[in-house]
Write a sequence for this structure.
C-alpha cells in the first residue's frame, strides 16, 4: 500500500486534468450548480465570445435567492423578476436543466443537490455561492466560486486550482441531547475564529461527527466558509450511503453496490497527514447564540455578552464596541435577557425536514409570543410537501408561525422577506453580518430548536430546560 | 481584462477587520444582470443613510478621497459571500489595488480575475499605511513586475503573488482561452472517466 492519504488528496488526485510547473492544477469539475444571482454575467460572457456550455448534463440550475415565499408569482421588484427571467432564458439557450419557480424540485441550491442525489461522494462540485461547502457532508470536494469562475466552468468544465492545505477538525465526545450540529459548528467558529480555515479544506472527524445524521452533517459543512475555509467535508460512511440509496440521480441496484464500493475507498486512510489539526470536545458544547456581527461572536445561551475591555487587542476591542452598538446590546448583559422581534426558521443551514421536525416538537401545542413575528421557510418544495404530509405545517401555523414556500428568503433578504431596521431576529441561517437580513437588522444565529423556543418565549431560553419542563 | 503593471494613486484607508462582501455591496444591489454600474452601490449602507443621503461620518464621502484608487484595510478583507459583485463594485468605483493584512480566498481570486491587484502586507505595514493616509491626501505606488509597494517618503514593502496570478494580471489574460489550449486534455480526461 502507498502512503496513507486524506480524502481531500484522494479526490484531488482523481480530478487532475493537467499539471505544469509554476501553475495551479487544472482540475475537472463533476457538477456545477447554478442560481439566478451569480450566473447572468457568466452566461453573458459566453454569449459575447460565442462559447457554449461544455457539459449541460453536469450543470443544474434553480431559482432560490430572489423567489417570493408567498404569492409565488407576484414579484414586486422588477429587477428580481428580470434576474429570474434571465436565468430561464439562459438555461433554455444553453440547454441547462432548470428547476424554476413552478418546478416540484425547486428549492435552495444546497438543499436540492443532495435531495436529488446529484451530490455524491468523491465528486468535485462548484457553485457561484459560498455555502457550496454544504455538499462536503457527502465526502465531495465542494466549494464556492465567483462569477468569472462560473463562466470558466460552464465553458470548460474545469478550474485552475492550487492543491489546498488540509485541516483536521477533530470532534471528540458526544453532543448532549438538544445540543445540535448547529451549536457544534457555532462553537467551533467561536473557539477558533472566522479565519482559522482560510487556505484550508477542512475534514471534520471524530466520534461526534460520525454520530451525526446526513442532514446534521450538512449543517456543519455548510458553515465551513464562516471559518474562512472554502470547503469542509466528512468522509463517507454507511450513513452517507443509506441517505443516497434510491435518490433520483444515484445509480440503482447492482450499479449502486459497485459505486458504494468505490465511495468507501475514499475515506481518509489511517495515519494520513494533515497540514493542521484542531480539536474540540463535543461534551462541552452548549446551545449557542451569536450576539455580534460575525459568526465567531457567539456565546452559550447561559453566557453574558462580552465587554470590550475583555478583548486581547485594540482592534478586537473596537470590533466588539462596534458590534455592540450595531446590535443595540450592553456589555455583560445575559443573552437570555434579550428580547426578539422576529424568528426565521430556514436557509441552507437549517431548513431540511429533520430541522423542521425538531423545531415543530418544541412549538407543538404552544403559541408564538405576542411581540414576535415568526416564519418557517422550507428549504425546498420537496421538504415542504414532506412536512405537510406529516402535519408539521399545522403545528407551526396553529402556534402562530407563517408557513411559506421554499427559497432563501430572510437568510439574505433579497426578496420581500426583510427584518426592518433596528429589529432583532433569531435566525437559523448562517450569517449575522451587518444588514444581512435587512438594512439595520440585528441577527442572532441559533439552532432550529433554540429559534422555536425563542419564538414562544420572546427571548432566548435554554432549550434543554425548556424541553424538560412540562407545560 | 485590462493588464496592470505599475500603478500610482491616492490611498483610501478603512481601518476595520473582517469587512465582508455584504458590506462591500449589500444584497439589494445584486439583482442586475450586467457587470458594470455597481460602483454607485459600494459600501452602500456605510456611505448612505436610510433616506439615501451621504453620511458625513463615513470617510469615503470625504472629498479628500475623491479619485482614490488604492484601498487599504485590516485583516480578512472580503470574507463572506462569494459575490463577484464586490470586486466589480470596487473596480467600478475606481479602485485598482486593494491592500490588506489578509484576504478571504474567494474574494482574492475574484479580484485577480477582474484585474484588481490584491496586495497582502504585514499587519505592521498596513497599519503604517493607514496612519499615513488617514485624513490626508497620500499617494502610493505599486510595481507588479518588481512586486513592491512604495511611496516618496521612503516606505517600501515587498509582496508575494503567485506567479500564475501575476502573469494573468500583467497580461490581462482571458483565462478561458488559456484553458481551451488544453482542450485535448479535457477530452482525454472525460473519455477516461466516462
Ligand atoms: S439560504 Fe442563505 S446562505 Fe443559503 S444559499 Fe440561500 S442566501 Fe445563501
Amino acid at each position: 500500500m502507498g502512503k496513507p492519504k486524506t480524502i481531500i488528496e484522494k479526490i484531488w488526485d482523481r480530478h487532475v486534468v493537467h499539471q505544469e510547473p509554476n501553475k495551479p492544477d487544472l482540475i475537472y469539475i463533476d457538477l456545477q450548480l447554478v442560481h439566478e444571482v451569480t450566473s447572468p454575467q457568466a452566461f453573458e460572457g459566453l454569449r459575447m465570445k460565442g462559447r457554449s456550455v461544455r457539459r449541460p448534463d453536469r450543470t443544474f440550475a434553480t431559482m432560490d435567492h430572489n423567489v417570493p415565499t408567498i404569492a409565488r408569482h407576484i414579484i414586486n421588484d422588477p429587477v428580481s423578476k428580470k434576474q429570474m427571467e434571465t436565468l430561464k432564458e439562459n438555461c433554455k439557450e444553453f440547454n441547462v436543466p432548470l428547476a424554476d419557480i413552478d418546478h416540484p424540485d425547486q428549492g435552495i441550491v444546497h438543499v436540492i443537490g443532495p435531495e436529488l442525489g446529484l451530490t455524491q461522494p468523491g465528486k468535485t462540485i462548484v457553485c457561484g455561492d459560498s455555502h457550496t461547502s454544504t455538499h462536503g457532508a457527502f465526502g465531495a470536494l465542494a466549494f464556492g466560486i465567483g462569477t468569472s469562475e462560473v463562466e470558466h466552468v460552464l465553458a470548460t468544465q474545469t478550474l485552475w486550482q492550487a492543491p489546498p492545505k488540509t485541516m483536521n477538525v477533530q470532534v471528540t465526545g458526544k453532543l448532549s441531547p438538544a445540543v445540535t450540529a448547529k451549536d457544534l459548528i457555532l462553537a467551533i467558529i467561536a473557539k477558533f475564529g472566522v479565519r482559522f480555515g482560510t487556505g484550508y479544506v477542512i475534514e471534520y472527524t471524530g466520534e461526534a461527527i460520525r454520530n451525526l445524521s446526513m442532514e446534521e452533517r450538512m449543517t456543519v459543512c455548510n458553515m465551513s466558509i464562516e471559518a474562512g475555509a472554502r470547503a469542509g467535508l466528512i468522509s463517507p460512511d454507511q450513513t452517507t450511503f443509506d441517505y443516497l440509496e434510491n435518490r433520483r440521480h444515484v445509480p440503482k441496484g447492482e450499479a449502486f453496490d459497485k459505486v458504494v464500493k468505490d465511495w468507501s475507498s475514499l475515506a481518509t486512510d489511517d495515519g494520513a497527514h494533515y497540514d493542521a489539526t484542531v480539536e474540540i470536545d463535543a461534551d462541552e458544547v452548549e446551545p449557542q447564540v451569536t450576539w455580534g456581527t460575525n459568526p465567531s461572536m457567539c456565546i452559550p445561551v447561559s453566557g453574558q455578552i462580552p465587554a470590550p475591555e475583555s478583548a486581547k487587542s485594540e482592534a478586537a476591542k473596537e470590533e466588539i464596541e462596534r458590534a455592540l452598538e450595531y446590535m443595540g446590546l450592553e456589555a455583560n448583559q445575559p443573552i437570555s435577557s434579550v428580547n426578539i422581534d422576529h424568528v426565521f426558521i430556514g436557509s441552507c443551514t437549517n431548513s431540511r425536514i429533520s430541522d423542521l421536525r425538531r423545531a415543530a416538537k418544541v412549538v407543538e401545542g404552544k403559541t408564538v409570543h405576542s411581540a414576535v413575528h415568526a416564519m418557517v421557510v422550507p428549504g425546498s418544495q420537496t421538504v415542504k410537501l414532506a412536512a405537510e404530509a406529516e402535519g408539521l405545517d399545522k403545528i407551526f401555523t396553529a402556534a402562530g408561525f407563517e408557513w411559506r414556500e421554499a427559497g432563501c428568503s430572510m437568510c439574505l433578504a433579497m426578496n420581500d422577506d426583510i427584518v426592518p431596521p433596528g429589529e432583532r431576529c433569531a435566525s437559523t441561517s448562517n450569517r449575522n453580518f451587518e444588514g444581512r437580513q435587512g438594512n439595520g437588522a440585528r441577527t442572532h444565529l441559533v439552532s432550529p430548536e433554540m429559534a422555536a423556543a425563542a419564538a414562544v418565549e420572546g427571548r432566548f431560553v435554554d432549550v434543554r430546560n425548556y424541553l424538560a419542563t412540562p407545560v | 481584462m485590462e493588464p496592470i503593471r505599475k500603478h500610482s494613486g491616492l490611498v483610501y484607508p478603512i481601518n476595520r477587520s473582517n469587512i465582508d462582501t455584504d458590506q462591500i455591496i449589500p444584497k439589494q444591489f445584486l439583482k442586475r444582470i450586467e457587470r458594470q454600474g455597481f460602483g454607485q452601490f459600494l459600501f452602500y449602507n456605510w456611505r448612505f443613510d436610510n433616506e439615501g443621503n451621504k453620511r458625513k461620518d463615513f470617510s469615503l464621502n470625504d472629498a479628500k478621497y475623491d479619485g482614490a484608487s488604492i484601498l487599504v484595510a485590516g485583516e480578512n478583507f472580503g470574507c463572506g459571500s462569494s459575490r463577484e459583485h464586490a470586486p466589480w463594485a470596487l473596480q467600478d468605483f475606481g479602485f485598482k489595488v486593494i491592500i490588506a493584512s489578509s484576504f478571504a480566498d474567494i474574494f482574492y481570486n475574484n479580484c485577480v480575475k477582474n484585474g484588481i491587484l490584491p496586495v497582502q502586507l504585514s499587519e505592521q505595514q498596513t497599519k503604517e499605511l493607514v496612519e499615513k493616509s488617514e485624513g490626508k491626501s497620500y499617494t502610493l505606488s505599486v510595481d507588479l513586475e518588481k512586486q513592491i509597494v512604495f511611496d516618496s517618503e521612503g516606505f517600501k514593502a515587498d509582496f508575494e503573488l503567485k506567479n500564475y496570478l501575476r502573469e494573468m494580471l500583467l497580461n490581462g489574460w482571458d483565462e478561458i482561452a488559456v484553458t481551451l489550449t488544453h482542450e485535448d486534455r479535457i477530452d482525454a480526461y472525460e473519455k477516461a472517466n466516462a
User: Anything to note?
Assistant: Chain B touches chain A through 50 residues (CB under 8 Å). Helices of chain B lie at 21-24, 44-47, 85-93, 105-113, 123-133, 163-171, 175-180, 183-192.
